[in-house]
Design goal:
Layout: H1 5-36, H2 42-54, H3 58-68, H4 72-96, H5 100-132, H6 138-163, H7 169-191, H8 209-217, H9 220-237, H10 243-251, H11 255-282, H12 288-312, H13 318-344, H14 352-383, H15 388-413
Helix pairs in contact: 1-2, 1-4, 1-5, 1-6, 1-7, 1-10, 1-11, 2-5, 2-14, 3-5, 3-14, 4-5, 4-7, 5-14, 6-11, 6-13, 9-13, 9-14, 9-15, 10-11, 11-13, 12-13, 12-15, 13-14, 14-15
Length: 427
């Protein structure tokens, strides 16, 4: 017995819960540190890089779920850790206002917990999906679950943005606390009893982690895809920590408005993913390579235009262009995710979690590297007395160039054949 569509949708709720916590730390809390507390952008950049760096443990979490025989406990336990980290991060921002070093210490601990929680819960969830979903449903399952994650991110950003006005520390803690409790409850209800009904559950297996990881790295397809994930995700995440500060410093938007702007971006991502899901998965039109290249080039164009309006001060175009950026990001991302899900079930059996962990680690390193690099470059240019609009615009332009490089790599390593839109290759 494999996962039904209803069960896949239930697991998608866990993805939505993961996104709900992470978006608060990478958008709202990041903006509060840079704008309201006037801290250098590199500080939240380092904190987010820490949580991504800790996700280097993803292969080990995946391997544990492959060989330990129980993915559900890692999913629920990881979500509880993530929720505690999210609330701790909000407390850290509040404490930074009165006691810098105490707030920094709490923030470091909180972001470490976020990394552990995402690694344990997210990797085990994807492994359960990859191992429990029938092969012909894997691409569609990837689309469904990521659409739900983006929906959760967009909804959380939009709702929190509207509630967090006017901003106060007490209101921030109240809202983040409510979100943290909600995601834990949703996760328990979503996963309860599903794994026991899937016949392809992993059984306990005695094998050293390094040996298991070496087996996967020896697979040419898995190795090539890991490199592609790193390059493309570096481009994808470079603006993550600077878009809201850009809107606040260049266009004067309030915390609630910039959080809502993040919601608009993720709403655009949702629409881009939905389009690819309907056309590629449902209508079976277009190869993976086509969608990835289109998404990368569209993202490049949107970033160049955002840089331009910052220089020209055209605030009216900010929201439409941010939505456009999200749309093309979504096109690119869902194609890559579909490939990831399909490839996870190929090669040596009972290693779905390890493969997902390896690619998740590559994504996490790229996200941390890209986000931190973007924030650091902005800080350096502002220290050099370069104007805000030009500093942010330069980073957006660099990110645009990386998207072109990712598109060129996709042309080289991915299949032209439209028969299976989620094939990666060189076949």
């Amino acid at each position: 017995m494999t996962l039904s569509w209803f069960q896949i949708a239930r697991l998608g709720l866990v993805q939505a819960a993961l996104g709900a916590i992470v978006v608060l730390t990478t958008s709202t809390l990041n903006r509060l540190m840079v704008v309201e507390l006037a801290l250098p952008a590199v500080l939240p950049g380092l904190l987010v890089a820490l949580h991504y760096g800790i996700q280097l443990t993803r292969p080990q979490w995946g391997f544990r779920s492959d060989t330990g025989g129980n993915r559900t406990r890692w999913i629920i336990g990881g979500m509880v850790i993530l929720a505690l980290g999210g609330f701790g991060a909000a407390c850290g921002v509040v404490l930074l206002q009165s006691s810098y070093w105490a707030g920094l210490a709490l923030s470091i601990l909180a972001y470490a917990l976020i990394g552990l929680g995402v690694g344990a819960s997210g990797t085990s969830l994807l492994a359960l999906l990859a191992s429990g979903t029938a092969p012909h449903r894997r691409a569609a399952a990837a689309t469904i679950t990521w659409l739900m994650m983006i929906f959760g991110i967009a909804m959380t950003a939009g709702v929190v943005g509207s509630l967090l006005h006017p901003y106060s520390p007490a209101l921030l803690l109240k809202i983040v606390g409510a979100v943290s409790l909600t995601v834990c409850a949703v996760t328990v209800l979503a996963v309860w009893g599903i794994e026991a009904r899937v016949t392809v559950q992993p059984e306990p297996e005695a094998l050293p982690f390094r040996e298991g990881l070496a087996e996967i790295w020896a697979e040419p397809r898995a190795r090539a895809f890991t490199i592609f994930v790193f390059l493309s995700m570096t481009a994808y995440f470079m603006q993550e920590l600077i878009l809201e500060p850009f809107a606040g410093l260049v266009f004067g938007l309030t915390p609630g408005q910039t959080t809502s702007l993040s919601g608009m971006q993720n709403g655009g991502t949702f629409l881009g993913m939905l389009l690819v899901g309907i056309v590629a998965t449902g209508l079976k039109r277009g190869a993976l390579r086509t969608w990835v290249i289109a998404g990368c080039l569209g993202s490049c164009a949107a970033l160049c235009l955002i840089s331009l309006i910052g220089t020209l001060g055209i605030a009216a175009l900010l929201s439409p262009l941010v939505i456009t950026l999200g749309f093309f990001n979504g096109m690119f991302a869902v194609a890559a995710i579909g490939s990831m899900m399909a490839l996870a079930g190929e090669g040596r059996t009972r290693r779905e979690g390890t493969r997902m962990g390896l690619w998740g680690a590559a994504q996490a390193v790229a996200a941390g590297f890209g986000g931190l690099t973007g924030a650091a470059l902005v800080d350096l240019m502002r220290l050099a007395q370069i104007g805000d609009a030009q500093a942010f615009g330069t980073v957006f332009t660099i990110e645009a160039a990386l998207f072109i490089a990712a598109a060129l790599m996709a042309m080289r390593i991915m299949s032209r054949a439209p028969a299976h839109p989620y094939a990666v290759a060189g076949e």
